[in-house]
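[Target chain]
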Amino acid sequence: MKDLVGILTKAGKVYYQEDREMMSNLEYDRLYDELSALEKDTGIILAGSPTINVGYEAMDELPKERHESPMLSLDKTKEVEVLRSFIGSQKTLISWKLDGLTVVLTYRGGTLVKAVTRGNGEIGEVITNNARVFQNIPLSISYQGELVLRGEAVISYSDFEKINEEIAEIDAKYKNPRNLCSGSVRQLNNEITAKRKVRFFAFALVQAEGIDFKNSRMEQFRWLASQGFEVVEHRMTTKDGLDETVQYFARKIQNFEIPSDGLVALYDDIAYGQSLGRTAKFPRDAFAFKWQDELKETHLLEIEWSPSRTGLINPVAIFEPVELEGTTVSRASVHNLSIMKSLRLGIGDAITVYKANMIIPQIEENLTGSGTAEIPGHCPVCGGETQINAANGVETLYCINPECQVKKIKAFTLFVSRDALNIDGLSEATLEKLIARGYIHSFADIFHLSRYRDEIVEIEGFGEKSYENLISSIEQARKTTLPRLIYGLGISNIGSANAKMICKAYGYDLDKIRQTSPEEMALIDGIGSVIAGTFVDYFAKEQNQTALDELLKELELEEPQTGPENQSLAGNVFVITGSVEHFANRNELKALIEEQGGKVTGSVTSKTNYLINNDTTSSSSKNKKAKELGIPILSEEDFLKMLE
């Protein structure tokens, strides 16, 4: 059945998306009928089967739910002998400890009715809609009683790499498959989850009344497999066979496609394991075994001092590249001065490095211990003086210059955001790197980054394509609107909506806006004295006026569209929910409404005139509220017709 689902899905994709045939219609129909017959015989329907239509749904939020019994962590060790002592005289199942997101599934009447994340062990998030689009989960099973099981939602390394390859900006790439999986499983729109190719591996059966499992966890695993679940790979062992079993998994992990950070040992005897009870933190019938970290020796080349927006300057060790856990590593955070001093780092020292939990590069030991690394007396960005702070026995280095550019990173991040200048490729992390290297000191400098082409393409993970995309986005941003510019300046209390109101009130005349008084601005409907005061104070500072003049040399402000024909929605308040089809995103729809004189808010109230939701019949909280208040619910089609 899994093979047929894969073949038919691929055939459908190449036919509908690539306009070519992988097989004849006759062959497709034959395989389709074979799959349908198997589904009827077994009572099992796998997610992704072409015999069902998967419905996509967007939610406003993920509801929370308390687990019936707490989901505890496992006690763990890196020593085989400790694991052998745990096994004792018991037959024990050894399985992968998968590195994803734990999910609890509930089936009733043969149908998946609920999926909840582990959360904090006590309370998780309900992700039922997302679980229904996992790659390999059974949506229907033959067992008709209530089944509760636990498993790990994961994304394979190959799928992780494919998704990251589609992201041009290095700082927007996901750090590891676990982070990607966690974000994918917890999406508000399950269409996104479906594209991420999440898989589910069962590792524990919690409840299935009326089934005789012969007091064996192994039998539970076999039964789950018979219901269509992929069960985590496992092997039965004893303390005498433990070494061979661990070696089997150790060899296999070298090319294992699914992220794993160790093994789990579970007593096969269900009654014996349950009789042991649990501690406050751990169950007593299971134990985790973590892999020993792979160590490599290398040499320290330099200490890079990396400032952050708080003023904290962290040391980063740059060393000769080494291969660790299948990837090339050349840098590791040293975290703070205390750790740097304890490692006695110096340029040229021989050091050993590893990946904590096979993910995060760390320095294990300094074999030379020269202790010659110097602590900078000046910030590498602004040249201001640094200061060593000590708190709770930990020393840290800070830049004490309040005007340091890195400390203003939030202002630059706002300036390039979607509602402001809308420059793709300049994430907060990328801005920090460019500012730290001295390429950006003011907003206007962003439009001259091409001066540093050779340096930027050499930044780790950036490359030629990312650079070209960034410059293209910067050039497109030169043509913008006055409200976007005003909002992008980051004036305290001035949001996107306020910026539009101010520009409209002053007839889109920037000179009038720059020279206004707080009393005059406070007369604008929706602008109070506090907002007016902070706005006027901003332009009262000569350096802000000068910076704006420099910025204006780089920009072309579009002529505003004014007139009664563009105010057809004046006086109407809208709320937008769910996914959109005729617009790139909700913000684009919001912008259109505001251009037409309407207002968009986040919640349905008695002041709301219309709710826009393509799923007009859904039972979402906003739909219910709108119906209670007698507020019309419009689809996009309805809205566009009204606009006409």
